[in-house]
From TrEMBL:
This is Pyridoxamine 5'-phosphate oxidase. It comes from the Bacteria. It comes from Microlunatus endophyticus. InterPro entries: Pyridox_Oxase-rel, Split_barrel_FMN-bd.
Length: 119
């Protein structure tokens, strides 16, 4: 499901408390990649940071919901050898320059599928 969706939420702990932000992403196994503004809150994730990432899908036709949760560690994706190929695949929804590329190096994936009961 990570590969079929494009919007998720990333969460981490900062000095001011827990932070959750929506992001537009690509899944480029074994990483989740996204772009952000260099002066935005997400830019702090260029440094190695433990994060959780979640993506959900609701399917009314089949009466089910799927949630995938990823645990991982972030890093900057701008390398001396060049940018990884996934960078140009991300199309951020937010306006402005979003040229800072960040990767979530996946350490664990969990999830659940819920079927809606009939009443």
């Amino acid at each position: 499901m990570l590969a079929s969706e494009s919007v998720g939420r990333i969460a981490w702990s900062a000095g001011s408390g827990q932070i959750i932000r929506p992001i537009t992403y690509v899944y480029a196994d074994p990483v989740i990649g996204f772009r952000t503004a260099p002066d935005g809150r997400l830019a702090e994730l260029v440094r190695p940071t433990a994060v959780a990432f979640e993506v959900d899908r609701l399917d009314d036709l089949h009466n089910e919901a799927v949630s995938v949760i990823v645990q991982g560690v972030t890093s900057g994706a701008n390398r001396e050898s060049g940018r990884p190929g996934w960078v140009d695949q991300v199309v951020p929804w937010a306006g402005g320059a979003r040229e800072l590329a960040i990767e979530v190096h996946i350490t664990k994936i969990t999830g659940r599928r819920i079927h809606r009961g009939h009443s």
